[in-house]
Amino acid sequence: MVTTIQEVYLENKDTKTFLFRYPVKIKPGQFFMIWIPDVDEIPLSCSYIDDTIKGITFRRIGDATKKLFELEIGDKIGVRGPYGNGFNIEDGKILFIGGGTGIITLTPAVEEARNKGIDTTVIIGVKTEEELIFEERLKETGSKIYITTDDGSKGYKGFASDLAYKLLSREKFSSIITCGPELMMKKIMDIRNDIPMQASLERYMKCGIGLCGHCVIGKGLRVCIDGPVFNHQKLEHIKDFGLYRRDASGRKIFFK
Ligand SMILES: Cc1cc2nc3c(=O)[nH]c(=O)nc-3n(C[C@H](O)[C@H](O)[C@H](O)COP(=O)(O)OP(=O)(O)OC[C@H]3O[C@@H](n4cnc5c(N)ncnc54)[C@H](O)[C@@H]3O)c2cc1C
Ligand code: FES
To answer: What is the dihedral angle through the alpha carbons of 113, 135, 194, 255, rounded to the nearest 10 degrees?
Structure first.
């Protein structure tokens, strides 16, 4: 449907949130296909979940997100979805690990977990302090928050996966939920010590509904409908996890 942007928030110099009316039920971790008139249609996670109002939060990096960044209150966007499976939030003590824009996808899951009274710890990993988003929003949930920056400008100096390793060796968690650069998620998979894990993957999407086959990984899994969230049992059998993705033309792009 075509909806009107009702509120706009500048989260950092390259990241904005749009809120719009979209009265459907959504699970954290699900995504929309967002149509930007005259430019493209791209997948974006649902970053705010309220009964009638939903949100997207996006980083400007290419043609579609740059055009989206220019839109204002009152402008229209096309929204399809929600699509994908979303996270399963189960009782216990959950460690959330978000790298870069991955924290956008995780934040509604942290909020749902806290609403259910679950004990939550969140690692927000960014390259530098300027890239931080949702710090206050996550603090308001009452979660234990850790920040990591690659350059040491705030919090722990190093990668989110390095701090995760330290936390996992001194605290007991019942599950791990992660979203971010795939090499980071692969590292977490390697250090998880038998703790159940869910990871939200990104692949190039065209249809978003399982028809075009563009987002296929492993042995015929479609990230748009079988994912984007995969548990460790599935990830263990996906050979391309942490190895490569495909661009718009289907060419392999190896992670480095
Ligand atoms: C399930 C899912 C959820 C996502 N959620 C968010 C989010 O909440 N916030 C956010 O900032 N980004 C999110 N992304 C990434 C977002 O889709 C890309 O940043 C966006 O499509 C870039 O488009 P562009 O034209 O601005 O950049 P381009 O210059 O065209 O591309 C920049 C990068 O984005 C990737 N990309 C471009 N088009 C697509 C596409 N149709 N499908 C998948 N990847 C694409 C490219 O492969 C490239 O790596 C998500 C991606 C997926 C698959
Ligand atoms: S995007 Fe078309 S099958 Fe997944």
So the answer is: 130
Domains in the chain: ranges and CATH:
2-83 (2.40.30.10), 93-254 (3.40.50.80)
Ligand nearest the Cα atom of residue 226:
2
Atom of ligand 1 nearest to the CA of 58: 11
Q: What is the pTM of this model?
A: 0.97
CA of 225 to the centre of ligand 1 (A): 17
Nearest CA owner, ligand 1 atom 14: 44
pLDDT digits (tens, 9 = 90+) for 87-125: 999 999 999 999 999 999 999 999 999 999 999 999 999
The model's pLDDT over 196-236, given as tens digits with 9 standing for 90+, comes to 999 999 999 999 999 999 999 999 999 999 999 999 999 99
- 199 close to 229: Cβ distance less than 8 angstroms: yes
